[in-house]
Amino acid sequence: MQAYANRLISRKKSIAFVPTMGFLHEGHLSLMREGRKRGDVLVVSIFVNPTQFGEGEDFDSYPKDLERDLELARKENVDVVFTPDKVSLYENGFQTYVNLEKLPKHLCGISRPIFFQGVATVVTKLFNIVKPSVAIFGQKDYQQLAVIKRMVRDLNFDIEIVGAPTVREPDGLAMSSRNNYLKPEERLAALSLFESLSKAQNLCAEGVLDSDRIINEVKKLIHSHKDSKIDYISICDPDTLEDIKTIESPVVMALAVKVGKTRLIDNMIINY
Ligand code: AMP
Predict the structure, then answer these.
(1) What is the pLDDT of residue 272?
(2) Ligand 1 pocket, 81 CB below 6 A?
(3) What is the 174 CA–ligand 1 centroid distance (Å)?
(4) Please, what is the Cα angle at 168 between 162 and 172, to 5 degrees?
(5) Which of 94, 109, 139, 180 sits at a 20 to 30 Å CA gap from 173?
(6) Which of 239, 251, 241, 237 is nearest to 201 (CA)?
(7) pTM of this prediction?
(8) What's the CA gap between 251 and 212, in Å, rounded?
(9) For residue 156, what are the contacts with CB-CB under 8 A and spacing of at least 6?
(10) Selected catalytic residue, list 25, 28, 106, 225
(11) Which residue segments constitute the domains of the chain, with CATH numbers given?
(12) pLDDT tens, residue by residue, 124-169
């Protein structure tokens, strides 16, 4: 892949890059369409990265269907699907990781303490292998996008990072490969994440600006489904991700909820 990227660059071709863990859905495809517009050559990677999964998480059961993914990528005119294996990316003796000081201390980083180290490290490796001039990430993973943007600035990667809007099912559920785990009876409970974000937006529009009050309202909504367990609900600063007590400017509301065994996340910018 790196040799191929070098050849493209020597022929003055720009590379647009979409990293994924596969089991592609319309959200991933929207990133590909964005990438298609922004580079001469579009590279998509499919790699379920072991270093971002903690003990007891779903690394081994993460859904996979490479044939279907390749077909979908082909339809989006993707030029290269890069599918490294874990032994070639993390050979024996691997010991170098990329860590951010502050952003991972919030939201998902609290219950997934090694997650952002794994993400920052694998994205660094993929950037060095694929050599893109632009890379597209989804706003669905808001904290991940913030981490990547910060890392690219801090470490002077010569790569433009583009954030693409969250693609949702018609009823509002954010698309995710993990939605595949949901049992039919859990699907309704999963919708409560989007309902929570919409409710928060409405409350704010009605003049409720106290974050705790909004979060308490939303908790009731989520707990009305008996198999849902809140990991976190946060109303936070869009750049630092630090909690905001009173809404006085645009904020991000982000939440993670376990529906049965499936951990779902979602977020929305709430305009003041
Ligand atoms: P994943 O395969 O879940 O690691 O996601 C790969 C990329 O797709 C990440 O940049 C995600 O933020 C993005 N993505 C995942 N779900 C969505 C969605 N529903 N809408 C837009 N982008 C998404």
Answers:
(1) 83
(2) no
(3) 10
(4) 135
(5) 109
(6) 251
(7) 0.98
(8) 14
(9) none
(10) 28
(11) 2-164 (3.40.50.620), 177-270 (3.30.1300.10)
(12) 999 999 999 999 999 999 999 999 999 999 999 999 999 999 999 9
